[in-house]
Amino acid sequence: FFKSVCSSLFFPSGQTQGNSVTQTEGQVTLSEKASLTINCTYSTTGSPTLFWYVQHPSEGLQLLLRAFSDKKESNKGFEATLDSKSKSFHLEKGSVQVSDSAVYYCAMNDTVTGLETGTVTQV
Fold first, then answer.
1. Any idea which fold 2-122 has?
2. Alpha-carbon span 21 to 8, nearest angstrom
3. Cα(83)–Cα(71) distance, rounded to whole angstroms?
4. Higher per-residue pLDDT: 120 or 103
5. Is pLDDT of 71 > 80?
6. Which residue, 37, 2, 9, 13, is CA-closest to 23?
7. pTM, whole model, 2 decimals?
8. Rounded mean pLDDT of 6-30?
9. Where is each Ig-like domain found (predicted)?
10. 89-99 burial string, b = 16+ CB within 10 Å, else e?
11. Strand order in the sheet with 27-30
12. How would DSSP label each residue in 27-92?
């Protein structure tokens, strides 16, 4: 089966009020070959770059996907489409494998305010 703990918030250092990222809370348990969707929505007054990071057991954080305009991005069978109208960047995979078991984090960089660093906090 597939397990993914996927609850996090991203708050850039020097964040202005109202800039945040929220994703699916809690643990997701799926059978192999099932489809996965982890919802990520954001709130910002600027033009953001959105990221999905993955952390496999006993490994460091790795960048999975990044988008800064309204288009679909894909990597390793995962896809995410940045949609500025709905302010979403949902992570999807059509058929998960045991090797996909990991912690997934959605993060945002507000390019208008020039924020380059921040912290990812699992809640």
1. Immunoglobulin-like (2.60.40)
2. 8
3. 7
4. 103
5. yes
6. 9
7. 0.76
8. 60
9. 12-121
10. bbbbbeebeee
11. 27-30, 2-5, 102-110, 48-55, 62-67
12. EEEE-TT--EEE-EEEE-SS-EEEEEEEE-TTS--EEEEEESSSSEEEETTEEEE-BTTTTB--EE
Contact of 67 with 40, CB cutoff 8 Å:
no
What tokens appear for 38 in the block? 């982890």
Provide CB contacts within 8 A for 17, sequence distance 6+: none
Whether residue 51 contacts residue 120, with contact meaning beta carbons closer than 8 Å, is answered with no
Q: In this structure, what DSSP letter does residue 16 have?
A: P
- Asked whether the predicted pLDDT for residue 99 surpasses 80, the reply is yes
Residues 121 and 59 sit within 8 Å (Cβ to Cβ):
no
Q: Using the Cα atoms of residue 93, residue 44, residue 119 and residue 65 in order, give the sign of their dihedral.
A: positive
Instruction: Give CA torsion, residues 5, 11, 12, 18, to 10 deg.
Output: 140
Condensed to tens digits (0 to 9), the pLDDT of residues 22-54 reads 887 677 888 888 899 999 999 887 788 899 999
